[in-house]
Amino acid sequence: MLVNDGILPMAPIRDLESLRALVDGQRHGIVTLLTEEPLTAKDLAERLGIGRTRLYYHLGILEQHGLIHVVDTRMVSGIAERTYRAVARTFRVDRKLLASQASEAQISDAQASLIEAVADDLRARAAAEEHAGDADVLVSRMFLWLNEARRTELRARLGALIEEYRSADRDGTEMELGVAFFAANRSAT
User: What is the pTM of this model?
Assistant: First the structure.
């Protein structure tokens, strides 16, 4: 079922290579922009501040793994200009789909790479002097003891909250959100 803007509300990540493609910081940024609206390579390069050659490399990988697709092609000064769009608003890792191709450790490592990318971005942000003392940063870590019903409820509420804020405020500031919700294995530490 397509949502009113022509993309799926959710698409599964079917293989480990697709997950690795999406985990890359620049590719994740590209997909994030393309969930909001269709954009050309020129538009993406300007918004992300990366060169077109590098951008085309990332677009090729994302297209190869079925995370984005071309929605329009038009001729501009004799050159084909493609407009890209994410295939879905949200991508979910289905561990059962990946289990036949990768170990649990490989899947967890790929998912953890997303959180590591958020941590790297936070470190880079802190190093930028213009954000010193910025009150917009919220980082929290906690261990909760939840029964199955409350786990299910919290996961659904977190997902709904993320969806509520997914659409961009055109006059807003770009914010980054990283969420990890999983059963803790504290006996391993």
Answer: 0.68
